[in-house]
Design a protein that fits this description.
6 helices; 82% helix; elongated
Length: 158
């Protein structure tokens, strides 16, 4: 859970860095993403060596990473909910307008029903839930790949 707490802090920092359209902050956001990957790897190795007697199956590693990202996502989404619901109430409206511009520029044939669905999703609660799912998906993808590298089976002589 401590790993999830730190990941939640890093996800939150990444969110606040992405709010600005300043180039250097975007670069720092990218560095934060790399740090999330490095930190996750380091913590899984530490968990394997300290708590699992140096051996860890692929599945146990995958579950550890997914749960860490889940706890981090809960923390981050709570901060995001508070931000869009109370601090910057216009953020979701601006995000929705940007989404409309991108969809129009890509010349997608979006119906009025789809626009209505997008508007319903852009509530503070919907935004927080989407954030949880996005972080879980990233954790799953990272876990599927990283678990191959951190797994370590017991030797037949142990």
């Amino acid at each position: 859970m401590f790993t999830g707490l730190f990941l939640g802090l890093m996800f939150t920092i990444n969110f606040f860095l992405s709010l600005s359209h300043i180039g250097i902050l975007g670069f720092i956001s990218l560095i934060t993403t790399v740090l999330v990957i490095y930190y996750t790897y380091r913590e899984v190795i530490k968990f394997r060596n300290n708590d699992c007697d140096g051996c860890m199956t692929y599945g146990k590693s995958l579950i550890y990473i997914i749960l860490s990202f889940f706890f981090g996502a809960l923390i981050s989404s709570a901060v995001k909910f508070f931000y869009v619901a109370f601090i910057n109430k216009e953020y979701l409206d601006l995000l929705l307008q940007e989404t409309y511009k991108v969809l129009d520029a890509m010349k997608f044939g979006i119906s009025e029903e789809n626009y209505d669905q997008l508007e319903k999703m852009m509530t503070p609660f919907g935004f927080a839930i989407q954030s949880i799912w996005a972080n879980l998906l990233l954790g799953l993808l990272l876990g599927v790949i990283m678990s191959f590298f951190v797994r370590k089976e017991k030797s037949i002589f142990e």
